[in-house]
Amino acid sequence: MGQTRSKKPKELTERDLLKIEIAKELGIWEQVEKDGWESLSNEACGRVGGIMSKRLRDAKKIT
Amino acid sequence: MAEITRVEDFLKENNYKREIIRFKEDTSTSELAAQALGTDVARIAKSIVFKNKSEDFFMVVAAGNVKINNKAIKELTGSKAKMANADEVLSVTGYSPGGVCPFALATDLPVYLDESLQAYDLVYAAAGTSNAVLPISYGELLDITGGIGCRVTSEG
Q: Closest partner residue to A46 among B78, B107, B109, by Cβ?
């Protein structure tokens, strides 16, 4: 069997990096790394999403 | 038509090769879109804008055959939420109801992608107007919306 080429890791977008940063701040990044974003509770999802859109809005105000 | 151009430009800027499918007929509901496409309503990605008690807007994208679970929505945003009205949808997304695309939005509202979208490799999201749809995968939706996966629905 030929060696399967390892899939190139997905390039992280700015939003991905922001999501990771927020997850780390909330102390849930280890869980995400281990079990994926889907493992988060709805509360945790909501917190990440809420903080993320606030930061994006604030960033736009500054520029 | 400007809305479709906005969606097309966003796709190009983000290197997505997906092509918008345009119809003569109306595709403004999940059922009508499924009918026009000749596919199952479970393959339609419906984008619903909500407003919570603190007047924060957010979007939930889910399969066309599932029902949004209000208790789960409350867990998601910490307070009860109701569907935004047509004027609110237009002002926060830049699209009229029936053509709400889950990206290239007028404002930065959080986007939550329900796990029901993972039932198929490809789903069809509205592409800015009520007679245009875009085939896209769950993974691509996650990337392009910068959204977060969640579980806020139950079978229809």
A: B78
Distance from CA of A20 to the nearest CA of B (A): 11
The pTM score is: 0.88
Provide the residue range defining the domain that includes B72. Answer: 2-155
Q: DSSP character for B104?
A: S
pLDDT in tens, chain B (156 residues): 689 999 999 999 988 888 999 999 999 999 999 999 999 999 999 999 999 988 899 999 999 999 999 999 999 988 899 999 999 999 999 999 999 999 999 998 999 999 999 999 999 999 999 999 999 999 999 889 989 999 999 865
Read off the amino acid at residue A40.
L
Tell me, what DSSP letter sits at residue B41?
A: G
Number of independent structural domains in chain B: 1
Q: What is the CATH number of the domain that holds B75?
A: 3.90.960.10
What gap in Å lies between CA A14 and CA A11, rounded to an integer? 10
Distance CA A46, CA A19 (A): 12
Which chain A residue shows the shortest CA-CA distance from B71? A42
Inter-axis angle of helices A42-62 and B70-77, nearest 10: 50
ipTM reported for the complex, 2 dp: 0.73
Stretch (H or E) spanning A11 = none
Sequence-distant (6+) residues with CB within 8 A of B110 are A46, A49, A50, A52, A53, B58, B59, B147, B148
